[in-house]
Every structure is written in C-alpha cells, then in structure tokens.
Amino acid sequence: MHPYANREAVLTSKHQKLRLIDSSFRQTVGLEIIEVALDTDQFGTFSGEIERTLAPLEAAVAKARMGINETGIPIGIASEGSIGPDPLIPFLTSDIEHIVLVDEESGIQISEVYRSFDIVAARIRCVPNQDLTDFLQRADFPHHQLIVKTEGYFSPLAVKGISDLDELYAAVQKCFLESEAGSVVIESDLRANRSPSRAQNIVQAGQLLSKRLGQLCPHCRTPGWGRVDYERGALCGSCSGYLETAIRAEINGCVQCDFREVGRAILTRVEPAQCPWCNP
Ligand SMILES: [Zn+2]
Ligand SMILES: [Zn+2]
Predict the structure, then answer these.
(1) Tens digit of pLDDT for each residue in 250-261?
(2) Full set of structural domains in the chain with CATH
(3) Which of 9, 67, 175, 223 qualifies as a FRET site for 138, CA 20 to 30 Å off?
(4) Pairing label, strands 269-270, 260-265
(5) Which residue has the higher pLDDT, 45 or 127?
C-alpha cells in the first residue's frame, strides 16, 4: 500500500484549485485533499499590487506551510504560477506552474514543474469608448475574465474578475477617472478560477506531481522517486570525439535517502551536427 493511501493533505489556495488537482492525487496515491482558503496575496499577485519577492518554488513551499500551520495537517500542497515572457524563448508567453508537496512528518519536499505555451494572457492600454473588438477576441472574453487597472507604480486601482461587457466598460470609465496617465490597462485575470487556460496547466502540473508521488524509492519506499539530475558525457557518432556536456541519461533519486540510479537513456551517440569537431 502507498504510504499516503487514505492520508489527508491540505491544499492552500485562495482561488479554488482543489477541483483541478484532487482526482489525480486520489487516483494515483489515495491521498484525500482538503482545501483551505488563506490569503496568499502576501507572496505576490498577478495584477502587480504586491510584487513577488520569493522564487516561485519557495513561494509555493511557503504557501504549503501556511496551510499546515493553519490546520495542523502535516502534509501540505500548494502551487505557484509564473506567466510572462518565457525564460528560454522570450518572444513567447509561457505559463510555468510549480507545484509542491511538503511533508512535515518525514521532513521531505517533492515538487514538479509544468511549462506551457497554452495560456491566454492579453493586455491593452486604452481609453473609454475605444473599439475593443480585436482585443476581446484575443483575450477570449468572457470565457477568460479580465482586470481593468489604472496605470502607475503606486497601488493602482484595479477591478478584477470582470466577465461581462457592461461591467468592463464601467470599470474602464471608473479607472480612467482615477488615472494620472490618461489611459487605463485591461489585462487577462490570471487567477486559477478566472483563467480556464491556466486552470488546465494546473491540472497538468497536479498530474505530474501525483505521478511522481506514486513512484516509491526502491531503497526506502519514500514517495517522490524520480529524476533529480542528468548523466553527462557521450561520444560523437562520426568522429568519436568525447562531448563532456552532452546529456546521456536521466538520474533518478530519492528525496529522503541518498539512493540514486541511472534512469531513462537520452542518447547513446552525439549527432555529428551537434559535434563541435564535425560541425564547427
Ligand atoms: Zn564529431
Ligand atoms: Zn530513499
């Protein structure tokens, strides 16, 4: 039986993420998750009133600990999304979802990350009575909800969770009157319960984590066995030159003990096209 079967975990979420992740955890490891709605805005908000100061994974861990402290349940789960220019392909917008399980009893932390380019994140600067037809289409409104805010660095006025056209125009009018810049900003509301495309990415992240929890360490049976590093170094298929940095295989490891094992092979020989001697 899985160590987490019939155990309880607490999900810290202000924006109803439970329905997005609970079935995969129940099915994979038998973990029952309850949700506690705590104010996690102190770790940063998408709309920018509060800037995030922790790295995403640290923020997720801090949220999970909040739920543990609040409920006394020793297993906590939380997630943290970063939506913006992709770190590797900056001209594309990506959604990077970190999700973590913190187990205070065993002193372990198991995390996964899911990166997706399927995210609706639109933004426009506008004035009242401007034609918004193209923007609203791009923003997939009202399927995806919107935020209207004044521009400016210091505590902008923001109207969130807009899902109706009259509400949108009224918010533009209201923020415009308060705006020093003479324009307002409309942007996608990226909170999990307002953005169906983000919600789907959280579903995927939850599936990755529950799958990882399902893998037990072959040595100590702690959940969370999986890739922790890569094994490097491979020969070129043409000139037999040795490439130190080429990733040859995955290395699996345990979050509790030091046991490690070579996992899935990634390549046996380096392609000549990737070889600095064959293709300088
Ligand atoms: Zn070569
Ligand atoms: Zn182990």
Answers:
(1) 999 999 999 999
(2) 8-117+192-214 (3.40.50.10150), 123-188 (3.30.1490), 227-274 (no CATH)
(3) 175
(4) unpaired
(5) 127
Residues 115, 117, 121, 125, Cα dihedral to 10°: 120
Residue written as token pair 């990737």: 274
- The two beta strands, 93-103 and 108-116, are antiparallel
Beta strands at 158-162 and 108-116: parallel, antiparallel or unpaired: unpaired
Q: CA nearest 21: which of 214, 206, 191?
A: 206
Residue 30: per-residue pLDDT:
95
Mean pLDDT of 230-241: 93
| Closest ligand relative to 273 C-alpha | 1
Spacing, Cα 258 to ligand 2 middle (Å): 6
pTM for the complete prediction?
A: 0.89
**For 139-149, how does the pLDDT look when each residue is reduced to its tens digit (9 = 90+)?**
999 999 999 99
CA-based angle 111:115:119, to the nearest 5? 130
Kindly give the distance from the C-alpha atom of residue 88 to the centroid of ligand 1, in angstroms, as a whole number: 26
Q: Which ligand is nearest to the CA of 270?
A: 1
